[in-house]
Write a structure and sequence with these properties.
about 220 residues; alpha+beta; four-stranded mixed sheet; three-stranded antiparallel sheet; 8 helices; elongated
Length: about 220
Amino acid sequence: MPARKILRNYRNVTGISHNDHTFEMTAFESMLERDYILMLKFSDQIEYYDGQPLTIEYQYQGKTRKYTPDFLIKYKPTPVDKEPLTELVEIKYSQDLIVQEAELKPKFDAAKEYCKQFGWKFCIRTEEDIRTDYLENIKFLLRYKSLDMDLMHLDYILRTMSTLRETTPQELLASCWKSATLQAEMLPYLWYMIANNKIQTDLGTKINMKSRIWMADLDNI
């Protein structure tokens, strides 16, 4: 349940998105927040996230104020970081950070102090962090992530990939089928496997048919 009610907003686009972690709907107040939710949905490093998760009370100029950050994110533990990272995140356009600096600074200072109590990290994300090639890649791949696929075709591509170990989408499909028609028909299978981390690539660079792809770790297969 969000800590604040999302009101109709005529400056930005508001809406809701299904949260696979909480099985509820997560509200967003801008297109930038919506794009950030897509990144959260796609990541396999996140254990849990929630929108408008809590409200922080703080004192400023002799009055009690309230501030509700946009997201709370808990990451999965890693071999290096055994204590899972938890982030309290604010999403803002970079121009708003400049124009609203005096208003936002006490809110952000209060959030940093709040996070210290729990060992969390307070983060501010802007369009420079979100509107990247990575976002464009996951927007493309998300359409394939939940498709029903023929297991026989998936297994054949994966076995071919395990032999090649590292290649490109173009070369992998050519190694599987001589027919250009079949290669085109099977291309969604390849995007499905990349979307589900069966085959890996550098998602920080725009994906194309000549992108470098490689075999995922056996634990992901």
